[in-house]
Amino acid sequence: MPNIHDVARRAGVAPITVSRVINNSGYFSEEIRQRVETAIKELGYVPNTVARSLRSKKTQTLALVLTDITNPFFTNIARGVEDIASDAGFMVIYCNTDESEVEEEKYVQMLLQKQVDGMLLVPARSEPSIISKIQARGKPVVVIDRRIEGLESDVVRCDSEGGAYQLTQLLLGLGHRHISVLSGPRYVSTAADRVAGYQRAMAEASLSDGECIYFGSYHQKSGYEMAKQALAVTPRPTAFFAANNFIAIGALSALQEAGLHVPEDFSVVAFDDLPPSLTTFPFLTAIAQPAYEMGKRAAELLLARLQGKANQPYQVVVLPTELFIRQSTGRRLDRK
Amino acid sequence: MPNIHDVARRAGVAPITVSRVINNSGYFSEEIRQRVETAIKELGYVPNTVARSLRSKKTQTLALVLTDITNPFFTNIARGVEDIASDAGFMVIYCNTDESEVEEEKYVQMLLQKQVDGMLLVPARSEPSIISKIQARGKPVVVIDRRIEGLESDVVRCDSEGGAYQLTQLLLGLGHRHISVLSGPRYVSTAADRVAGYQRAMAEASLSDGECIYFGSYHQKSGYEMAKQALAVTPRPTAFFAANNFIAIGALSALQEAGLHVPEDFSVVAFDDLPPSLTTFPFLTAIAQPAYEMGKRAAELLLARLQGKANQPYQVVVLPTELFIRQSTGRRLDRK
DNA sequence: TTGTAAGCGTTATCAC
DNA sequence: GTGATAACGCTTACAA
């Protein structure tokens, strides 16, 4: 493969001149541009970004570290990130941690070695060390989706506590008194915050939330298992609050298996809507987060840091959620 | 940030010795390993992969170029790719082309500049030039999901023609005679092959497919619009064959809007199933492709090429699909 | 088992 | 406007 020297020789100029033409930087005459461009074409020259990065200390590469690209919420974040990054001439490396701190640590280490210019990260745990580590190496990070106590950084997320409060209030308004929360991993802020929102609503209604809180993982299987457990409790709950879309789907199959019909016999609400493009018939009452917008905003924040705004104060962007009331909550319960 | 020289100085060895310890290559004594590792820790040294890549001509990076990560079919391919790549110590850059040749060309160019070790590509068009270009630069490529006439390369895909034939036969067996195909972009092989499978089944049943074939894009909106058009034709069709999941969803809303109930008044089948983790209640009769497996196999093929099997004959892997018969096709039509 | 020297392909710096 | 030179941080090839 030809390099910049080969092009220079063919065009009868110095390598640095070729570099100037390629990058459209510094001064050169129109005639030189012609000669260089011709030589590039004739040789089929492709600039080597690796060499350029070594010299310039910039890779034009961002990393997106999330838990599972398979979840449409994260998929849409990814798409938002990529669209913005791509427009700015950046490429994106993505990594799935499956909520594992070990994987997260491994990926971050690799990404630092790769000299990515910045990272967008959905942290596996609510503990600041991994982020601090990245910041300590002078790389900007934007934390997506989750809260980390005691950490200064750019953040883009939604209000989990508030959304959960809204969903719980909706159920309470429909007359439900025994509501089980099927939540995600205990140490993930969204899972904890969604429980907290539920608890606030329950407390305001002077109801106990005694045995009704389950922590699991943000997966269908876990939703199924938590629902099974919850249904075995006496008195049996009349509604579920699923802390994400996958959990809701799992809970629905548990309900079906138990012969309970939604919404006739049971109500279900979920945090995270299913994208309309994937829903045969919208059914679940849900709080929707603007995932694509979250990815976009996060990428914009990161790029701003890379484009000189390195020393501005950190921004915490909390985007609004939207409540969609659908069939899974049905009508008001008859008071017993 | 410290570099390999700093570590070498601190450990009292030569840079190359540090390199050997880091990469666990060549010979060095246990004592040297200790000294080097201590120095690395004390300095917080992180190896610079960019410099390493420049020298070794390997970036340990793959690229996944697909049309839209937002489609769960591709999301699962991506996940399969990433899992395999990650196990082998490779990172993955992903790019969305939205079926645009221009975007595809732009991305491939950037990826070549970035010196990725190999590419996995869902080509935007059934035309070999972009792939040949990558091959010409000595980079291995695996073509995913689509056929390209007259191209020698590794390929992982499913049998679109056969799956479409199966779905059409199912509809014919239920008594449908007026079946409209709502397909994807005319010049994408999967869209064309799915139409071909439909045509074969129709021809075998001695039925005409005159005005019943629509080409659009693989999106919900296009599905909606094609369905609208198809429903305006006399005699009105009694069934749709949607060439992908998004089109099916769009078609369902058009049917709902037209006051037609599925499956009572109308049947719908789709190529591409919706992942169970995203389906509140499975409803669509569909051909499912093993997307995750496709991504996995494709990544394995690519890695094999990178690990010395560069000159083996190209492999074309055609994975089996699975038919799920659900409610959207209902019962046998009463013969008129 | 360890080290020296050169070079990977660019660009920053300074000179002309 | 254009070019010579060094340097980015590492590893290959060779030497000791």
How would you describe what is shown here?
The structure is a homodimer of 336-residue chains. With 336 residues, chain A is an alpha/beta fold. Chain A has helices at 4-11, 15-23, 30-43, 49-56, 72-87, 101-113, 129-136, 160-173, 189-204, 220-231, 245-257, 291-306; strands spanning 61-66, 91-96, 118-121, 141-144, 154-158, 179-183, 213-215, 239-242, 267-271, 285-288, 316-319, 322-324. In chain A, strand 1 (61-66), helix 5 and strand 2 form a beta-alpha-beta unit. The structure holds a DNA duplex (16 and 16 nucleotides).
What topology does this entry show?
Two copies of one chain form a homodimer.
Chain A: H1 4-11, H2 15-23, H3 30-43, H4 49-56, E1 61-66, H5 72-87, E2 91-96, H6 101-113, E3 118-121, H7 129-136, E4 141-144, E5 154-158, H8 160-173, E6 179-183, H9 189-204, E7 213-215, H10 220-231, E8 239-242, H11 245-257, E9 267-271, E10 285-288, H12 291-306, E11 316-319, E12 322-324
Helix pairs in contact in A: 1-2, 1-3, 2-3, 5-12, 8-9, 10-11
The structure holds a DNA duplex (16 and 16 nucleotides).
Most strands sheet of chain A: 6 strands, parallel
Tally the helices of chain A. Answer: 12
CATH topology of the largest domain in chain A: Rossmann fold
| Assembly classification | homodimer
CATH architecture of the largest domain in chain A: 3-Layer(aba) Sandwich
Proportion in β-strands of chain A:
15-25%
Q: How many independent structural domains of chain A? A: 3
Biggest sheet, spatial arrangement of strands of chain A: 2-1-3-4-5-11
pLDDT under 50 segments of chain A (min length 5)?
Answer: none
Main structural class of chain A: alpha/beta
User: N- to C-terminal separation of chain A?
Assistant: 80 Å
Look at the structure and name the CATH superfamily of the largest domain in chain A.
Response regulator
- What is the ordering of alpha helices and beta strands of chain A? HHHHEHEHEHEEHEHEHEHEEHEE
Largest interface: A-B, 54 and 54 residues
Count of distinct strands of chain A: 12
CATH class wording of the largest domain in chain A: Alpha Beta
